[in-house]
Amino acid sequence: MSKNQMAVYPTIKSLSIVSILLLTFGCQPKLTPNNYAVKRVSDGDTLVASDAAGKDIKVRFACVDAPEVAHTNAEKNSKAAAQKNQFKWGNLAMQRMQQLVKEGGGRVVLTVTDTDRYGRKVSEVRLPNGIFAQEVLTREGLVMVYRPYLKNCPSASVLEQAEAEAKKSRRGVWGDSKFVPAWDFRKK
Hints:
Elements: H1 3-26, E1 35-43, E2 46-50, E3 56-61, E4 64-65, H2 73-76, H3 81-103, E5 107-115, E6 121-126, H4 133-139, E7 144-145, H5 156-169, H6 182-187
Parallel strand pairs: 3-6
Antiparallel strand pairs: 1-2, 1-5, 2-3, 4-7, 5-6
């Protein structure tokens, strides 16, 4: 071994040991306090999650409103066109959110903005990789921006832009002339 090789050898050995230590201990996933395991997606804008201690929390998505899903057998078997249409879009929104949760490894990161009258935590919902669930659903036309509550929405401008794009492209509910916004559907 030459003098240069002997001088470099300890450096390479040290770097190898440091690399192994970093790979072993430095890359462990760190869960932030607002990182939750999703137990179930209830509909396109509601889910149940549990914290690190196993405590369940009900989450209502901030800033958006999803089409309704059928809850009762009567609703599921309804022949009324308005209900069938609403529930079709509600199921699509729920399925897309389930897909997003799966992509996030069954976890979400919540930014709680409020608590609603039902005790649900009103939250911005992101996947662990930072994808903003409400933005995806809005951009795809599966939920609508809920303007009465935008004043408490940290990402209002992002969602308004996503909705404008969905409207312009006639994506999702924006391409369905028979669709009734969920807030109007609930009034009936």
